[in-house]
Amino acid sequence: MAKTLHHFIGGKKVSGAPNGPNGGRAGEIYNPTTGEKSAMVPFASKAEVEAAIANAQEAFKTWGTTSPVTRARVMFKFKELVEKNIDELAMLISNEHGKVLADAKGSVQRGLEVVEFGCGMPHLLKGDYSDSVATGIDVYSMRQPLGVVAGITPFNFPAMVPMWMFGIAIPAGNCFILKPSEKDPSCPLRLAELFMEAGGPPGVLNVVNGDKVAVDTILNDPRVQAVSFVGSTPIAQYVYETAARNGKRVQAMGGAKNHMIVLPDADMDQAVDALMGAGYGSAGERCMAVSVAVPVGEKTANTLIEKLAPRVRALKVGPSTAKDSEMGPLVTRQHYDKVRGYVDLGVKEGARLVVDGRDLRLQGYENGYFMGGCLFDDVKPDMRIYKEEIFGPVLSVVRAKDFDAAARLPTEHEFGNGVAIFTRDGDAAREFAQKVQVGMVGVNVPIPVPLSFHTFGGWKKSAFGDTNQHGPEGVRFFTKIKTVTARWPTGIRAGADFSIPTLK
User: Fold this and answer.
1) Residue 113 has pLDDT above 80, yes or no
2) Does the reported pTM lie above 0.90?
């Protein structure tokens, strides 16, 4: 029998109100490997989300004025507990999302790196001080928390992305409302429990499960000061426009179509290894997955396909918890159907399907959401499979005649999340990195996700808002700056001065 999950509000598990205004609405959670229903998750009503916001607002009265050192110590303890329980967290992710265990564990670790960065908040919150800017006058600045803030996170990283958000927001002094994906909420709920075990006060980290009702409540409630979002571009734009219209700070990360340029002088074996991991890792369900390979020149393209196709055919697709699986299933039956539909579309549009993974079946797991790796060649920029984000194990090869034609593709695409170039030519790599209109660039690095002390964020329709995630910009996003100009009496009265203050 499928278990029933809960919300986490005020430091306690809270069941969804079956007879409340939400009418007991709930979602079904499935194990992607078996296709079996594993849990039910309650969808919060507007009243239940408002109760969580009120709880966070009350907790902020104390947490916001707690010493940054004390807050950092709670996060240090939280980090230790996550490390101690990382195998359990990875299993929760694999069983609900379908990531293989090694990838699930790696995603938890990448989230922890932001928590580690956030543990340095006593230093990160230090302001500036200018002594004697004018006679007897000093100026100093301080960073202060916003209050109640929220994160709306996607299914593909149920541990990493929430920690990217609250790993900065909470040590900065804010109280956090997390609305995770309804497809795999068990890991976020467990993180909230570990935060309490670490000594986090009730109400500082709350988790409300739900759908558009919960999202809209967060976006429209005036007590929520800022919203961080990761998901598809249409929803990112909706979140940005709605929250900004209501006077909130917003960082909303959307979709992607990440290119990898392969120049003729590239180490081809290294490039193929990179495309396998970046294109098919996590079944392509990453906003930083490489979904377009751009070999420069016919010889380069032919060599790349020759080396890549057998590797894709040999990809070890299997249960997410099997140690030898390189790729697990897609997250839901609906998403499987969507990705398969894109492969059908690519064939109809005239692209050459070199490797067809649509009919993969695993003995004993016939009801799982498995698809083999798919590889298209001769994809053209006017095809929908090039223009749109597929979010699955589908790699498109777009052949470019020269460096300039290859570089134009990511620059002219409507998405601008990540891009990579593989080459031994430093001059070409430097020119590409400087000129390409994409937010994150990798040079011989296929997935250029910055480390926690830098910031993550794309350009164009891959991101809405002016501030990126984690790193220094994350600290700026979750704090507001206050500048104080102070003069202490010296016993000398100069009388009233009706002109604007100037340096004297």
Assistant:
1) yes
2) yes
